[in-house]
Design goal:
It is built from four helices and two strands, in the order ββαααα. About 5% of the residues are buried. Helix 1 crosses helix 3 (about 65-90) and helix 3 packs antiparallel against helix 4. The chain has a two-stranded antiparallel sheet with strand order 1-2. The protein has about 130 residues and is mainly alpha-helical. The mean pLDDT is about 90. It is elongated. The protein has helices at about 20-50, 55-60, 65-90, 95-125; strands at about 5, 10. The termini are far apart. The protein has a single domain, classed as Fumarate reductase/succinate dehydrogenase, transmembrane subunit (3 helical TM bundles of succinate and fumarate reductases), CATH 1.20.1300.
């Protein structure tokens, strides 16, 4: 780790602090996107509650429903990943543990996202 001496303190070269706004902005955008997507999802779940697998497959095979489901899952994974990163940064003290947990959170978010999108596509395309 590179250390730089400043007149007031020691600065660690952990990266620029200018990326915080981007993180904050993306987290807010995904939260805003999740509001209508969550409403659509709740209405969709109510509509297909008690339906057979064939009826659900028909519902999900509609292009709008498949696209909205993929957007819902993607926005949820990104939003959850970013929220967990903030929690880890704030409450996990040792830098090595923090980095390991952040790597795990990122891998889990991407794995859940990819598996979800692939599963949606398989069901939507009639596989």
């Amino acid at each position: 780790m590179m250390m730089m001496r400043t007149p007031l303190s020691t600065a660690r070269a952990f990266g620029s602090s200018r990326d915080g706004f981007h993180h904050w902005w993306v987290e807010r955008l995904t939260a805003i996107a999740l509001v209508p997507l969550a409403l659509w999802f709740a209405i969709g779940v109510i509509r297909v509650a008690g339906a057979s697998y064939a009826e659900f497959t028909y519902w999900l095979s509609r292009p709008w429903n498949a696209a909205l489901m993929i957007m819902f899952v993607s926005a949820g994974c990104v939003h959850g990943k970013m929220g967990m990163e903030v929690i880890v940064e704030d409450y996990v003290a040792p830098r090595s543990v923090q980095m390991a947990v952040r790597i795990g959170v990122n891998l889990m978010a991407y794995a859940v996202g990819v598996f979800s999108v692939v599963s949606i596509m398989i069901v939507a395309l009639g596989g």
